[in-house]
Write a structure and sequence with these properties.
The chain has 209 residues and is α/β, with parallel strands linked by helices. The chain folds into two domains: 156 residues, Ribosomal Protein L4, Chain: A (3-Layer(aba) Sandwich), CATH 3.40.1370.10; 41 residues, no CATH class. Strands 2-1-3-6-4-5 form a six-stranded mixed β-sheet. β4, α5 and β5 form a beta-alpha-beta unit. The longest helix has 17 residues.
Length: 209
């Protein structure tokens, strides 16, 4: 697959051949869904917790005698049916971690990249360089490259220009900057367009081909 390489002004500079192993791979929707669910599950903390009747304070004394009052027998005011009593069948700390083989996760990324390229959601630029860290400059560049679409921006490495690009992108609500080596299924599917310089494409080749 051949795509045009643009500069920051949206002008065509040259044409580049995208690796077929990444951008013309079989699109497996089930595999992408599994990878997405696995990533979201692994992001859960699993720290939700409520106290049982043995953990809440108070209730050590029997509220009234067992017989003769006409009321139902009670052993503690911290039983679940009492106000301020312990809770039952409520969340306890647990792990939500799911495991997925590396080959399957990378195959899911290839499927997502192929789908993104097929929908014309891929924008390749020769380089991502700004003269100064200004949100306005990045907004103008993205408006030329992708219009009003949400965008995921990939960078190859944290070089001298990285801080400038990062500071220019942080305040844009519909844009996210990400290292190419950290590409994941959630961010890839969560944005309309993918913008990446040629160096970032080389990084993708290094672990997806």
């Amino acid at each position: 697959m051949k795509v045009d390489v643009l500069n920051m002004k949206g002008e065509k500079v040259k044409t580049v051949e995208l690796p077929a192993e990444i951008f013309e791979a079989p699109v497996n929707i089930d595999l992408m869904h599994q990878a997405y669910i696995q990533q979201m599950a692994n992001a859960r903390l699993g720290t939700s917790k409520t106290k049982t009747r043995s953990e809440v304070s108070g209730g050590g004394k029997k509220p009234w005698k067992q017989k003769g009052t006409g009321r139902a027998r009670q052993g503690s005011t911290r039983a679940p049916q009492w106000v301020h009593g312990g809770k039952i069948h409520t969340p306890r700390p647990r792990k939500y971690t799911q495991h997925m083989p590396l080959k399957m996760r990378r195959a899911a990324l290839r499927s997502a990249l192929t789908a993104k390229a097929a929908e014309s959601g891929l924008v390749v630029v020769d380089e991502l360089v700004l003269s100064e860290p200004k949100t306005r400059l990045m907004a103008q560049a993205l408006n030329v490259l992708v219009g009003d679409a949400t965008v995921l921006i990939l960078v190859a490495e944290k070089d001298a220009n990285y801080d400038v690009v990062a500071r220019s992108t942080n305040n844009l609500p519909d844009a996210r900057l990400l290292m190419a080596s950290y590409l994941n299924i959630r961010d890839l599917l969560g944005y309309d367009k993918l913008v990446m310089p040629l160096k970032a494409l080389d990084v993708l080749k290094s672990f997806l081909v």
